Amino acid sequence: MTRPIHIAIAACLMGVMLAGCKTVDDGIVRTNEPTPPELTAFGDTFKGLKTVSDVEFYASDEAVAQATNQFRQGNYGNSGAYFYKAVLLAPNDGVAWLGLAASCDRIRRFDLADKAYRHAFQQLGPTPEYLNNYGYSNLLRGDLQAARNNFLRAYELVPNDPTVNNNLQLLSSSVHNIER
Question: How many of the other CB atoms lie within 10 Å of CB of 168?
């Protein structure tokens, strides 16, 4: 008669042990571990967090500022590296893509510039800045007709912009030098 008692006790112990286990979808039995605090019913709330509109600083802002500074100093390789960091941090930042494209133009990596210009256009569209920069890229590549078309489109949008006007003047002097 002691045998059924031993079986009953063993069954109870087995039931207690199995209560501390769970089966996962992959069929492997794992022990229950305590839920991390951030996933508890009290720790998974978003109350108190700032929304994106409340944030004054974005991670890519610093990289863009450093890149712009390097570009103005003529350190185009460094500016390209910072703009690349910025587009990794904020892939929808059209200004960062445009800066990356301009940096690539200056180090004559037109293959990379073309990729960056495509991303910039997707984010910004045909803005005067985009058209002017892409026109300058065409000028650096020797495609004077494409440069003229882009500069004129930018001029139509902002006729008093000194950068666009200077680039049109630069294009004009380039054409005169070719004709001589």
Answer: 18
The reply to whether 130 and 62 lie within a common domain is yes
The span from the CA of 21 to the CA of 31, in Å, is 4
Q: Say if residue 35 is in the same domain as residue 113.
A: no
pLDDT tens per residue across span 90-106: 999 999 999 999 999 99
**Structural domain boundaries, residue 127:** 53-179
At 168, is the secondary structure helix, strand, or coil?
A: helix
Type and span of the H or E element at 30: strand 29-31
| Whether residues 9 and 67 fall in one domain | no
Question: Model-level pTM?
Answer: 0.66
Residues 22-38 have pLDDT tens digits of 444 444 444 444 444 44
Q: Are residues 164 and 101 in the same domain?
A: yes
* DSSP symbol at 47: T
